[in-house]
Amino acid sequence: MFRSPATAALPTKKATMPKVSDLEVWRAANRLIKQFPIDPAMEAAQRADHAYEQGDMSNFNLWTRINKAVRELEHTNPADGKPLN
Hints:
With about 80 residues, the protein is mainly alpha-helical. The protein has helices at about 5-10, 20-35, 40-55, 55-75.
């Protein structure tokens, strides 16, 4: 296959991260809540921001998923014991 000099330096295959399962995301969210009980969602958001700044979109997307799971877990497990609705 002919490749022009402009594209000759580009890799032929993309390096991608394997898909992280939903179960692994929920486990990571639960661990983050235990490690950072004050504001685990902020920690996940900061890690997502850092990945974005580095141009690491795979990790950005992963930390965004973890952040969403953290917020859902926090919503279903209120710390003050009040009912959700």
